[in-house]
Write a structure and sequence with these properties.
Length: 103
């Protein structure tokens, strides 16, 4: 199964987004690719045993100066085996705690 994580998040020049998770996802953050002004995404192939496991993941925002902001909820979870098919598209959004809209 291939799982594609598509994150709706607007960034500034020099910023990048990363997917962080624990096994069976890679043990290190994986960079998302810029799609357009509102979306970033990454596709990960999962072996059948990994697709049967629960995936716990979060997102990281890295700035050009090296600072990093973590998706503070850290409670995102997904069970790919619950969905039938060879591909799964996960459309997420992240409303960062520092956004003016959260005041």
């Amino acid at each position: 199964m291939t799982v594609t994580f598509r994150l709706r998040f607007s960034t500034q020049p020099g910023q990048s987004l990363w997917l962080a998770g624990s096994r069976p996802l890679p043990g290190h953050p994986v960079p998302l690719q810029f799609v357009d002004a509102e979306c970033w995404q990454v596709s990960l192939p999962l072996a059948p045993q990994a697709a049967a496991a629960r995936l716990n993941y979060s997102y990281l925002l890295r700035s050009a100066d090296g600072s990093q902001t973590t998706d503070w909820g850290r409670n995102r979870a997904l069970g790919p085996a619950s969905f039938n098919g060879a591909e799964l598209l996960v459309i997420d959004s992240w409303n960062q705690a520092g956004f003016v809209e959260n005041v």
